[in-house]
Amino acid sequence: MEPNDGFRELGRQECLRLLATAPVGRVVHTRHALPAVLPVNFRLDDEGAVLLCTSAASELARAVDGAVVAFEADEVDPVARSGWSVVVTGPAAVVSDFDRFRRLVRDGPLSWAPSPREVFIRIAPELVTGRELIGGRSLYGLDPFF
User: pLDDT band for position 115 (50/70/90)?
Assistant: First the structure.
């Protein structure tokens, strides 16, 4: 990005703070060698990892376990032409540690589509990036359509 192009790079901690406010995000993974995007509800753990809850039999659980994925969430105000977007990239894994699983059953995200056998997926935050659009302002002044 060019300096003052209307976007502001966000630091890791600011990205995680904003991400924690979003109710829904998108998991980006590979399906049949093509990119696939799936909206999901989520929660962050204390280390900034993204936690998902889904059916153990879901395509999502099978597709992302052991794979590097991206997770994106954002907030946009189309009237003010402002908002932010955060992307977490890292390996995803079904939580297999029994103690961690039990804690997540109590404190983790709840699936919006419950199933008889659920699993938790953890996306490690190896790369956390984000940017914010500031209300139509840029290096070139105010957006003439703002």
Answer: confident
- Phi and psi at 127, nearest 5°, equal -130, 125
Which tokens sit at 117?
């056998």
> Which of 140, 138, 129 is closest to 13 using CA atoms?
129
pLDDT at residue 1 in the model? 46
- The two three-digit tokens of residue 2, written as one number: 């060019």
Quote the pTM value: 0.85
Name the nearest CA neighbour of 67 among 87, 48, 90, 50: 90
The HSE-up count of residue 116 (CA atoms within 13 Å, CB side) is: 0
Residue that is written with structure tokens 């962050």 in the block: 44
Q: Which long-range contacts (CB under 8 A, 24 or more apart) does 44-47 make?
A: 44/16, 44/19, 44/20, 45/122, 47/125
Q: Tokens representing 132?
A: 């914010």
Q: Take residue 94 and report the two structure tokens written for it.
A: 């079904």
